[in-house]
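G., before I forget:
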Amino acid sequence: MTTISIPTSDTSALPDARGHFGRFGGRFMPEALIAPLDELEAGWKSAMADPVFTAELDHMLRVYAGLPSMLYDATRLSEVAGARILLKREDLNHTGAHKIRNVLGQALLTKRMGKPRVIAETGAGQHGVASATAAAYLDLECVVYMGEVDTVRQALNVARMQMLGATVVPVGTGSRTLKDAINEAIRDWVANVETTAYLFGTAAGPHPFPAMVRDFTRGIGDEARAQCLQLIGRLPDAAAACVGGGSNAIGLFAGFLDDAEVALYGFEAGGDGVDTARHAASITGGDVGVLHGARSFLLQDADGQTLESHSISAGLDYPGVGPQHAFLAESGRATYRPVTDAEAMTAFDLLCKTEGIICAIESAHAVAGALTLAKELGQDAVILVNLSGRGDKDVHTAAEYFGLLRDGDPA
Amino acid sequence: MTALSDTLGRLRADNRPALVGYLPAGFPDVETSIRATTAMVEAGADVVEVGLPYSDPVMDGPVIQAAADAALSAGVRVTDVFEVVRQTAATGVPTVVMTYWNPVERHGVARFAATLAEAGGCGLITPDLVPDEAEEWSNAAKDNGLDQIFLVAPSSTDERLAMTAAASSGFVYATSVMGVTGSRAATSTRAPELVRRLRGVTDLPVGVGLGVSNGDQAAEVGGFADAVIVGSALVRCLLDAHGDHDAGIDALRDLTADLRAGVERAR
């Protein structure tokens, strides 16, 4: 069995002491939250330096979340793709995605900091379900903010969160989607910060969230690196992940940032195409600005008002992206490309038919990107793809997309 | 020295707290918002805060969110905000803009500052920009003679209070509670302590905002603050009028007069 080690501290130089990744990141937040963010940063750093904390987290990840996730040699997919594709099977984790790594880390930290209550935002419901799971497991009160539009689209995930004991609060302001759920969670946090931790769901937001979420998620990359060496005796030529807010991608990339020979690829949700108004590709189709506490790329109009994003994949449907991705894009260390809804669904179908794996539509964007990369890099290339989540939650969307629902089937 | 500093200095000499009234530009429409700020001035506001409606107002409660949503849906633009500032400042009261940071950055910080100064604005209140991230804004403010009004909160450490006050000009905006904008039944018990701590690190006037909605509360807060800042309660006058603009402005006038009477009897 491949061993995993939870990193005890960030090994890279970034972000700097003020949370900046070059010109990105930082803290664009109400002053009321600056002291709590400082407290969180200090609590996190102290926890990661405490062998008792890291051992407990490591234990939870193994016995509860089912980590390390396996690295799978996808031979039939590789045959079709024309290059060797290795899948990091985060879809097999407890709750069905990489997100359990982050929430267990943050929830255990919350216990350590003596706070009894956690709040979270969720779009499709995956981070909400993961947060509710961690809260149940660690006996914390949990409130999840979710856009009203999403509570309707994702009614089953609302039920899941409620079964797990969480309170789900529908958010009816603004565009009534993920970004507004984040706004409402921030408002709750300002008012209740003494008793409450905000389990932020992605590697975005004000410092220290981008760095903290990355480090709680970087097991993906660290494990995959070791597993790849064990399986094929060398590093992959490319590592690929989908990017919405960017937590699974930064978790994968973190394991390879110092390996210059490994090309890093982030695949954004191109929706109907980045040349249309309907996409969620912040880096390839947006501009630099400030949203939810950090400077990064975002979708915005000429006045700096946030635009609504669109993607067939709810988990990528966010108009911003984590600041380290903005930095990696601008520095050229990672390459970001859009993948349309149609391309993602073609890859989703191919993975189903060749490997018997129904992946999350988010992850299908990474598979689609890898199929293109395979043609560019050739048959000797090895492409590591993070299969960040499973597709149970997407069966209805996919069935509708492929015309598999008869009239009258229950929605 | 901006008109804002002049006004607050004069009122301090008179031993009377200032009344600062907030309204968002473009709500319910640009023309009515100008009538509304003008009415507020006529009824006794000493300083006007013009809000720039923003899509993601994390510091605002339901009332200001609803007004911002409505203003944006009605198509308000940043250029309209400057027009509201121009017309409001023309009444002779110091006028500042309260804005989240991204619209300023998107407009171009130097360009925003220059246009605001040209329109007669005195400065910016920046709810999500702390001095740590404000280098570009500070330079632009100094170049254009604008005030930088930063916020402090009950959670601010002594070190941050001193740093923030040192970076501020015009006044320091003390948020009286840990929370978002909106009326509250009782005034904050944490505000007097926060103001006391601020007095130890700055001679700048201190404005207290969040939760003040009537003359009695204004009188209470005016007992220890240099300026009493009122937002949601005023916005609610227009919101509750449900499209009857004249009725909304009448209600706004009445509330402003009540608040003014409150600050008059504060000391």
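Chain B has one domain: 3-264. The interface with chain A takes residues 54-59, 61-62, 65-66, 69, 72, 77-78, 101-107, 127-130, 132-133, 150-157, 160, 164, 175, 177-180 of chain B (CB under 8 Å).

More on Monday.
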